[in-house]
Write a structure and sequence with these properties.
The longest helix has 28 residues, at 122-149. The strands form 2 sheets. This protein has a 7-stranded parallel β-sheet, with helices on both faces. Strands 1-2 form a two-stranded antiparallel sheet. The protein has a single domain (2-267), classed as Rossmann fold, CATH 3.40.50.720. It is globular. It is built from 8 helices and 9 strands. Strand 6 (104-107), helix 4 (122-149) and strand 7 form a beta-alpha-beta unit. By secondary structure, the protein is of the alpha/beta class.
Length: 274
Amino acid sequence: MKNEWGDVRLGIDAYDLRGKKALVIGAGAPAGRAIALALGEAGADVTVSSTSNDGDEIMRAKKVQQELTKLGRQSATVATDVTLGTGVQVMVRQVAKEMGRIDILVNAPDLFLGKAADATTDIEWNRVLQVNLSGTFHACRAVGKEMLKQDGGGQATRGGRIINIASALGERGLAHAAAYCAAQAGILNLTRALAQEWGPGGITVNAIAQGWMAHSRAIGNPDPAANQTVRFVPMKRAGAADELGPLAVYLASDSCGYISGQVMFVDGGLTTHL
């Protein structure tokens, strides 16, 4: 059985990503790192990127590259400011040229702002939306162009996988986080819109929405006995970054050619709580 992505494999082989080329933007953050390593462990060659030109973030991404190299994967580190659309396009073209193509894109920017709406400045509002929402769009647009022309002289014969890492706060909202919630909600609907637009080209576009994770900037003490937020999670604990990796591998795999436009929550049941 075939589709634009290639042969549809069944069983454990469906999750073998050997030969696939992935780009993970935001690999210096816990979620991006965990997903980059999961893709590498599944066999993909992975280029990792920062979301800014901050030196510390670039160094964290380089450490992820080193971990991928130890797994025996081809890997490289690139730096980009995701808020600059032209810069992202240049970076993506460079990565596509060096890797030969891009089969998998993971967007994992995560700039949180915890501040009352009436105290949020225009600069803060714009920055949060630019990094999270505009940054995700810039990367999707640039990689989508590459995926649509791969191996087909402008015609989509290969397709690809796009996975946007978002937050459950894009679905439920939270007081004192209006800018972040608005940006995350935008990512969820951007995912749905692109899935419709690029589906005929064999490109799936899905989102993974994190709940309260141990690395969430707003979580505070993750101990449920000391944290009212975690107490509302049915699983009674914060999530771990490594719990995002298996789902990302599934969404990137050959077994996932007919799942698109979906938001999958990794939240311990948080969004089921009234």
